[in-house]
Amino acid sequence: MATRVDEEYQQLKKQVHSHLIERLDEEGFEVERTDVSLLEKFVEANVNQYIAHHRVPLATAEQIMLARETLDEIVGLGPLEPLLADTEVNDILVNGPLNVFVEVAGVLQKSPTRFIDDDHVMRIIRRILAPLGRRLDESSPMVDARLQDGSRVNAIIPPIALDGPSISIRKFTQKHLAASDLVNLGSLTRECLDLLVKIVQGRRNLLVSGGTGTGKTTILNLLSQFIPKDERIVTIEDSAELQLNHPHIVRLETRPANAEGSGRISARELVINALRMRPDRVIVGEVRAGEIIELMQAMNTGHEGSMSTIHANSSKDAMIRIETLLAVNGYDAGEQAIGRLIGSSLDVLVQLKRLSNGRRIVSEVVEMTPTKSNPYQMNVLYQAPDIREEVLEGEAQ
């Protein structure tokens, strides 16, 4: 009996898909304009007919699965469809056709999902890119894109990807966790929440720091809920993920270069433009390049209460990362001047951490208290109980 992982089944699936494409052409179906329920009936009937004609030994359950997967190939993103529909899955990572991993509750695990071969993965990548007019080939082997639901996609293909085409999807969720949810999940304490609300409403300039998958965007969304409703907010993102329930917001999104290499709009350009739009607060989804210069200067010149996120594993690492970003992106100043800019621009840093069990927490909240001799002096306002226990254990040893 064939199973999902059998090569025999995968080859059957490939043949059935080719057959269905021919039948759709013969019948003059325009897939994009045809009702899905009608396509579903057509696919089911033709799959059953193909199985009967070729006398393929498939159980009824497998035949139903084959019809469903063939429909996903025709109208959706093939093997990715069940994973995209699964609300428990946060990230989908395709490392070639046979190795698909998912992140569930902060923990990576191998999925039984697989593709037929490299060509199958490439077909799905092209389907993702087709509505966007984006290009992916040997001369341009990497691309960032976004699915219709807002999920972020990165694809990279051979010869750059040595083990076959790779897809990385960070799923976008319409349902963001409320403050009470995060407290109940143990991501932060009530004490921490009250402190963060006070910081936001006090118009302190704030940076959320953390490693990959620690929930930086989730916390930024949470903090934004406490911005007074009479303030004007301008957001700048590479991929629009922030969902601010606010009456006065202008959302800006960067744009990559087109196939000819022109038309790119960077986050730095958008921050510069945002400052001409009379914002009370500027929120940058993530600082990773030259936009750090404009954001620091905006924080230092009247746009109190601005926010952003940065990739760093600790508060001290975040300071080093900001320094580095300023230096490599042309901020022409000495070490002391850079230190003074950071110390006078940034008020509070919220550090996130993912524990070994996958739980994401606010590990600490620190206040910048710069002095003449140490522009990066910090005062710890909050430290998570989990982190305090680790520190005490370390001191005891």
Automatic annotation (TrEMBL):
Q: Which domain of life is it from?
A: Bacteria
Matches recorded under SUPFAM superfamilies: P-loop containing nucleoside triphosphate hydrolases
- Residue ranges occupied by any Bacterial type II secretion system protein E domain in the UniProt entry: 76-354
Recorded hits in InterPro entries, A to Z, give: P-loop_NTPase, T2SS/T4SS_dom, T4SS_GSP_E_ATPase
Q: Which PANTHER family match?
A: TWITCHING MOTILITY PROTEIN PILT (PTHR30486), TYPE II_IV SECRETION SYSTEM ATPASE (PTHR30486:SF15)
**Which family does this protein fall into?**
Belongs to the GSP E family.
What name does the UniProt record give this protein?
Putative conjugal transfer protein
Native species: Marinobacter litoralis
